[in-house]
């Protein structure tokens, strides 16, 4: 299976998260504040807790990318698949972005934008890095919500500059062949 491997030197930069971070004691109020202070035609959530919190706040994301974990531990939130029109499952090991995952993300973006579908993507592995190809391909006025454990909610409002930043970051990854 072909994949892009994250170089270790990018880890600290990526761990910082996006520039726009909303913090607060109450996760639902924090998400509501983030939604009120951003202009989003489409909402994408990368992470189980942020997906769950957006749904609880009354805003089911157009796309949710989850892996059943938070900080590499099993997560205790249940995301109801019936909130979504389609569900995909794809493998994506930690520290990588598989080409299969990229294809699935692009298909989900097309379905969300062109067909107004709600799409749930369940990752076998880790979903953290998948925000990058989503930001690179999403249309303007898409907000990508990222759970930032012990910090709050990170939001990337997609525009030409954010797409360029994601593309530059992805260009530093190396293509590898993973054993199946």
From TrEMBL:
EC number: 2.7.1.237
One GO-annotated biological process of the protein: coenzyme A biosynthetic process
Keywords: Coenzyme A biosynthesis, GTP-binding, Kinase, Nucleotide-binding, Transferase
Residues bound to GTP: 48-49, 67, 69, 127
Record pathway: Cofactor biosynthesis; coenzyme A biosynthesis
Function: Catalyzes the GTP-dependent phosphorylation of the 3'-hydroxyl group of dephosphocoenzyme A to form coenzyme A (CoA).
Organism of provenance: Zestosphaera tikiterensis
Stated name of the protein: GTP-dependent dephospho-CoA kinase
Family, similarity comment: Belongs to the GTP-dependent DPCK family.
Record GO terms (molecular function): GTP binding; kinase activity
Lineage, top ranks: Archaea, Thermoproteota, Thermoprotei, Desulfurococcales, Desulfurococcaceae
Catalytic activity as recorded in UniProt: 3'-dephospho-CoA + GTP = GDP + CoA + H(+)
Enzyme class, broadest EC rank: transferase
HAMAP family: Dephospho_CoA_kinase_GTP_dep (MF_00590)
């Amino acid at each position: 299976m072909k994949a892009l491997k994250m170089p270790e030197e990018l880890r600290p930069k990526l761990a910082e998260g996006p520039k726009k971070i909303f913090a607060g004691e109450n996760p639902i109020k924090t998400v509501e504040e983030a939604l009120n202070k951003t202009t989003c035609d489409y909402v994408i959530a990368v992470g189980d807790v942020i997906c769950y919190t957006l749904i609880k706040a009354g805003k089911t994301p157009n796309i949710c990318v989850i892996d059943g974990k938070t900080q590499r531990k099993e997560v205790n939130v249940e995301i109801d698949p019936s909130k979504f029109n389609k569900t995909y499952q794809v493998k994506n090991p930690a520290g990588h972005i598989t080409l299969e995952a990229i294809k699935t993300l692009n298909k989900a973006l097309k379905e969300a934008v062109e067909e107004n579908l709600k799409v749930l993507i369940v990752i076998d592995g880790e979903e953290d890095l998948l925000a990058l190809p989503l930001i690179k391909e999403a249309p303007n006025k898409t907000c990508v919500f990222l759970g930032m454990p012990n910090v709050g909610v990170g939001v990337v409002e997609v525009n030409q500059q954010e797409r360029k930043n994601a593309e530059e970051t992805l260009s530093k990854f190396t293509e590898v062949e993973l054993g199946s």
